Structures are given as C-alpha cells and as structure tokens.
Amino acid sequence: MAIGSAKTKFLSDRPGVGVDPFFQRLSLRGWSQIVLAVFFMFAPLWAILTSEMVVGERYVPFIIWCCFGGLVGALYFLSVARHPKWLFAAIPATVFIAVGGWVSESNQWWLSPSIGLPIPTVEGVFTLICLVVAYFMFSRFIGSAGLEQARMRASLDLAKSIHDELVPDINARIGPFEVLGVATPSEEVGGDLVAMFESKHGADIVLGDVTGHGVRSGVVMAMAKSAFFTARITEPQLPGVFERVNAAMHELTQTGMFVTAATLRLGHDGSASACLAGHLPLLWMCARTGEIRRIENDALPLGILPECSFPLEDLALTPGDLLAIVTDGLIEVAGPDGRQLGLEGVEAVLKRHRNESLPVIRDAIMAAAEQKGDVLDDRSIVLVRVGEAP
C-alpha cells in the first residue's frame, strides 16, 4: 500500500474525540460531515436576523405554510434515507409551495403565506443555499452513522450469541451433588466464565472472572475456557491444571489482564476438593450448625506470573451442606451511602434461604445486589448442595 493511501485510510478510520461515547467513535469523515452541516446550518443566521421580515396578523396560514415546508423537508429526507422514489412526492411538493405561495400571496388569498410578495435578495438566496447544503450534510451524516450503528449492532448480536454458547447455565446433578451455575454479563459480552467439565469420575465446576468486562474480557474468557479444557486432557490433578492454564494465560494475554478462578472437583462418590487462584473465598455453609466458613486462598490470579503454585483444599462435606462461589460484580455493588453488598450480604442471603431450592437462592442473591445499587459489572454464581451419598 502506498504511503499516501495508507495515511488517508488512517485518517478516515481514526476515531474522533468527544465526551459522549457516540462521538468518541466517529471517524474523521463523520466529524467532517457533521461539522460542515452545523456550519451551513448556522451560517445564514446573520442574514435572517438582519433582514426585514414582516409577518401580518394571519398567523394560522403562516403556520400552515411552515408545516408545508417541514413536510417537504421530510420527503427529501425519506428520499435520501429510505428510497429515491420519495423524490416523486418531494419535487411536486416543492413546486406547489413555490408556485402556490406566489399565486396565493399575489391574490391575497386567506391561505397565503402572509409574508408579502416574495422578493429575491442576496441574503435570501444565500440562506436557502446554506440550508440546503446543511440539510444534505446532515442527511449524509445520519445515513453513514446509521449504517455503522447497524453493523455494530449486528456484530454485538453475533458476539452475544457466541458468548451464550460459550457460557451456558449449569443445572446438573453429579453423584450426590446438585449444581447450579449462571453468568450474567453487564453488556452483550461478559468476562465471567461458568463451565462444567465432566469426566468418568465426576466433574470440575469452574467459575472465572476476567479483568474488566465487555468484548475484550469476553475474548480472554473464551481463551481461559479453552485452556481449562485442554489442560484437563493431560493433567489429572487440579493444581496441575491451574499451573498449565496460568502459563497459557500469561503467554496469551496482555499486561494487566488476568483471570481469577475457583474450581470445585466433585466426584460421583461424594468426594469434593477446591482450588482457587486469586478468587473470592469459597463460602461453605454447614447444614448442622448453620455457620458459614470461608475457604480463603493466597494464590495469585491466573496470568500474572509465568509460574505459580495453587494449593488444593479437600472438603469434608456432609449432606445438606451448601457451597457458594460468586464474582466481585455482585459483592462490589454499592448503595447511595457507598457501602457495598460484600460477602457479608451474600452470606446473609444464604442463611435466610438455606432451606430453599438453589434457583430461589440464586435469585435472592441477584435481587440483593440489584436492590443495593446499580450493577455495573458481570455477575456470576455457582451453588452446590450436598445430598445423600449414593
């Protein structure tokens, strides 16, 4: 590609600067169109303000003719934005206003525009030309911006469908365990990962949280899921799986991007263990006492260092126990007073609804976050209830 053409392409694709997100995404071409439209729209103001326009007391006919002018403008817009066939209505309407206004004003009919006999002036012609140019520029800008918006909407819809395929809800039974997992993105695409990888001995339930949210985090989330899937093929132990995923994420992600993760390995025989990487504590509610124990972890999130160790925690669960893992998009929701929901808020919900079904508990936690304040990040939950051993 030649240097000149490359430079032109760069300028045409380079986003503009603006406070509103819409204007931040405008290309140089879009900025040129809207700035020129505004220029030509306001250029004739001086001519209008300094001209002598005398309107009689027949305000109703004057308003009617203003509406005629608006109708013509709408017809021309439809011819640009919808289909050129609207010109077959716009052009006759323009002729009607010009000829009809002249004739009715000349004969002093009641429906005359009430502005006196039209007398062409330099100011009037300049005003008309500027308004026509401004209208044309606005129409071009709206058309190009609308096309870009439609393309973006189609891309986001496709990304959302891919995200939904990658992060389906979990509603399963593994031996004595009832498992429920859901990831709710704050945008079309989220960075939270909820996945279940089954084996002949049981299943691994993974809950991950990528830095940030949106499309960028969603791409990293997809890479993390692929890394977990691949690592489990050759590595039987959870700490080894985490080490392999950590190495892959460090190699693939940019500086500042990392993944916190918590994995539960549930066996068909009732065995359970947990491995965490920089994630929030695993909440373990004892059915016998009603108390909640937090399984903390000191391991770093995945992807920060090329090598890191991840300790394994064996869980001696009893029937009726309840396990819960959440992402920070839930606990960091803050109210008007600035206080966050926190793990304490999640624990309070677990205690109130511990005898309810898992879907009820999930909905109660989500509702507690939404009632606390505006939810700005992805929200994910994994709930596990222990049943009787087979």
Low-pLDDT residue spans = 1-20
Please give the count of helices.
12
Strand order of the largest sheet: 1-2-11-10-7-8
* Tertiary shape: elongated
Strand content: 15-25%
| Average pLDDT figure | 79
Helix content: 40-55%
Give the beta-strand count.
Answer: 11
> Separation of termini?
68 Å
Q: Class by helix and strand content?
A: alpha+beta
Order of helices and strands: HHHHHHHEEEEHHEEEEEEHHHE
Compute the gyration radius: what is it?
32 Å
Largest sheet report: 6 strands, antiparallel
How is this structure best described in words?
The protein is an alpha+beta fold and 390 residues long. 48% of the residues lie in helices and 17% in strands. It has helices at residues 3-13, 21-24, 28-42, 45-50, 59-81, 87-106, 122-166, 215-234, 238-252, 328-331, 342-352, 358-372, and strands at 170-174, 177-184, 192-198, 202-210, 259-267, 272-277, 282-285, 292-295, 312-314, 322-326, 379-386. The strands form two sheets. It has a six-stranded antiparallel beta sheet. Strands 3-4-5-6-9 form a five-stranded antiparallel beta sheet, with helices on one face. The N and C termini lie far apart (68 Å). Residues 1-20 have low confidence and may be disordered.
